[in-house]
């Protein structure tokens, strides 16, 4: 047996490792005690830097140690700029040692940013090289990407150069999600879109980028990275608020209503003239009392028994004139189109999207049940013509619910949004007056675009799957609201609907009388149906509600 190497047992190895860990723990705790002692006595010296460096190299995520280290450095700062620069260069070296331990340490990257901000003349170029080094190690290290954005902003490096780098990174690896995301942030800087266009970039750049990313998704349809970028290109959004519609509604205030495409503050309200006389000191209010709202209204005093000319001025070159006939009590007019950004797709954009659509249809045939293909098809068809492609979009969303059950509710909400938008668009084309809005038995799970319902006098959302009706606070003109056969349990959004006369709430989730107390302020309410709700089984409900809501003449509880 002599001369043979002794092999340690598993138990012996575990004991040695435990002993080693215990020794390291004692050393670490001893260092922490020294640091806390120095900090409490406000002792800022070289020893403090040395101890914190050792501790942070072992554990870069100790935020308190980074804080103390910054305190030491600031107290050691003197008038000698060269000495201060040398000290900070050493700090960058120390932080890099910490990043070797944990390349995704929040504290280390934050301290590196602080160090660069503290430099008299920061070494921007060297830091860009460091970013390149760490992104080669892990191209999705978002800490490093954030730091790179910080460095490029500080060094005033041209976005055009960074855009080229994003292209190089994508060409090196098309699955580099971070590079695609970075590109989406750089493109609007390098190629800013026109102020009123809904596209994220100018049309010519949009078309070029679409063709490039389509090649990427064809290379590997299962890779989600380019799909996100493709959807970003396709999706259109409002760049600035637009006045969509105006209306005069009859209630106790004779309100004049302005509906906007985005939430705006009261100061965004237009100047109003009645028969060429400017209305001064108008008091505008939002339906829900919020500072920012899609709907703003004000009380107008109009001449009796004669037609009235009302002008809405938003600026010197943007005005809308409507004539209100004598005796009219309800009038609604659209100011701009419902299309995102108020404009139709250009022929060139439309033809390009049609081409992308055909490519996605081909991909769907080659790679069926790919959720990214289906989701992008939904976006494209929605952008092209949601009403014309309504059934196809619904088919794709149903397919997505089957393929991706964890996000089934998300797709249900998309269906609801689609139903609301297409119905509103249809109502606009069918009847400019906007009196009755009906969207029952449509499986709605959420209410969208409720600001566009502000001037409707009757709204029917019965037999859906609604649980929240908070957006219905916008229904300023509503006299009859039908919400039967839903899953509603909170009525507080209706407390400000002063015009409401009839409220249908049969077969919902109203369980107690307190849930109806929020309707006490609705003095115009004369009809209330709460039949087939659990609250109807509570003894004395009818008598209690008659006392709570004295204006109600017809109360249905059975």
TrEMBL record:
Pfam families, A to Z: PPTA (PF01239)
Biased composition (Basic and acidic residues): 14-23
Region (Disordered): 1-23
Chemical reaction(s) catalysed: geranylgeranyl diphosphate + L-cysteinyl-[protein] = S-geranylgeranyl-L-cysteinyl-[protein] + diphosphate
Domain of life the protein comes from: Eukaryota
Keywords carried by this UniProt record: Prenyltransferase, Repeat, Transferase
MF GO annotations: Rab geranylgeranyltransferase activity
UniProt EC number: 2.5.1.60
Keyword Ligase part of the UniProt annotation: no
Record PROSITE patterns: LRR, PFTA
Gene Ontology CC annotations of this record: Rab-protein geranylgeranyltransferase complex
Gene3D superfamilies to which the protein is assigned, alphabetical: Protein prenylyltransferase, Rab geranylgeranyltransferase alpha-subunit, insert domain, Ribonuclease Inhibitor
GO-annotated biological processes: prenylation
Role summary: Catalyzes the transfer of a geranyl-geranyl moiety from geranyl-geranyl pyrophosphate to cysteines occuring in specific C-terminal amino acid sequences.
PANTHER family reported for this sequence: GERANYLGERANYL TRANSFERASE TYPE-2 SUBUNIT ALPHA, PROTEIN FARNESYLTRANSFERASE ALPHA SUBUNIT/RAB GERANYLGERANYL TRANSFERASE ALPHA SUBUNIT
Family to which this protein belongs: Belongs to the protein prenyltransferase subunit alpha family.
Protein name: Geranylgeranyl transferase type-2 subunit alpha
Species in which this protein is naturally found: Halocaridina rubra
């Amino acid at each position: 047996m002599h001369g043979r190497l002794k092999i340690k047992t598993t138990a012996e190895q575990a004991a040695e490792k435990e002993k080693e860990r215990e020794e390291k723990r004692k050393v670490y705790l001893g260092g922490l005690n020294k640091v806390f002692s120095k900090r409490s006595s406000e002792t800022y010296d070289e020893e403090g830097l040395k101890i914190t460096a050792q501790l942070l190299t072992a554990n870069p995520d100790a935020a308190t140690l980074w804080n103390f280290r910054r305190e030491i450095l600031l107290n050691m700062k003197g008038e000698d700029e060269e000495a201060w620069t040398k000290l900070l260069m050493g700090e960058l070296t120390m932080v890099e040692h910490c990043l070797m331990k944990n390349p995704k340490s929040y504290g280390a990257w934050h301290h590196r940013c602080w160090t660069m901000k503290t430099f008299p003349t920061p070494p921007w170029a060297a830091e860009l090289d460091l970013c390149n080094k760490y992104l080669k190690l892990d191209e999705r290290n978002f800490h490093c990407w954030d730091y790179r954005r910080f460095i490029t902003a500080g060094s005033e490096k041209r976005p055009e150069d960074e855009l080229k780098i994003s292209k190089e990174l994508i060409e090196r690896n098309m699955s580099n999600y971070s590079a695609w995301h970075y590109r989406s942030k750089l493109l609007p800087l390098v190629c800013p879109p026109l102020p009123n266009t809904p596209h994220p970039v100018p049309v010519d750049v949009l078309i070029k980028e679409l063709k490039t990313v389509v090649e990427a998704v064809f290379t590997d349809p299962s890779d989600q990275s380019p799909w996100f970028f493709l959807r970003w290109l396709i999706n259109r959004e409002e760049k600035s608020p637009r006045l969509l519609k105006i209306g005069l509604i009859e209630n106790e205030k004779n309100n004049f209503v302005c509906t906007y495409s985005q939430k705006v503050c009261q100061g965004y309200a237009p100047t109003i003239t009645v028969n060429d006389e400017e209305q001064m000191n108008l008091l505008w209010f939002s339906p829900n009392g919020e500072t920012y709202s899609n709907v703003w209204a004000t009380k107008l005093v109009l001449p009796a028994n004669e037609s009235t000319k009302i002008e809405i001025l938003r600026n010197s070159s943007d005005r809308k004139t409507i004539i209100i006939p004598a005796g009219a009590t309800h009038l609604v007019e659209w100011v701009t189109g419902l299309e995102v950004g108020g404009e139709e797709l250009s022929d060139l954009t439309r033809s390009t999207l049609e081409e992308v659509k055909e490519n996605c249809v081909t991909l769907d045939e080659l790679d069926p049940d790919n959720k990214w293909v289906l989701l992008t098809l939904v976006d494209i068809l929605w952008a092209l013509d949601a009403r014309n492609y309504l059934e196809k979009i619904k088919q794709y969303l149903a397919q997505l619910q089957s393929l991706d059950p964890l996000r089934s509710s998300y797709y249900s909400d998309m269906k609801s949004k689609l139903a609301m938008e297409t119905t509103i668009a249809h109502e606009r084309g069918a009847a400019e007056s906007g009196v009755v809005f009906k969207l029952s038995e449509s499986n709605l799970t959420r209410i969208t675009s409720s600001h566009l319902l502000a001037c409707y006098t009757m709204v029917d959302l019965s037999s859906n799957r609604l649980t929240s009706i908070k957006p219905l606070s916008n229904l300023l003109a509503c006299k009859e609201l039908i919400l039967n056969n839903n899953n509603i349990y909170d009525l507080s959004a209706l407390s400000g609907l002063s015009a409401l006369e009839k409220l249908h709430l049969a077969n919902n989730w109203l369980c107690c009388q307190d849930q109806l107390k929020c309707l006490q302020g609705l003095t115009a309410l004369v009809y209330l149906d709460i039949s087939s709700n659990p609250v109807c089984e509570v003894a004395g409900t009818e008598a209690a509600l008659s006392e709570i809501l004295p204006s109600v003449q017809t109360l249905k509880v059975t």
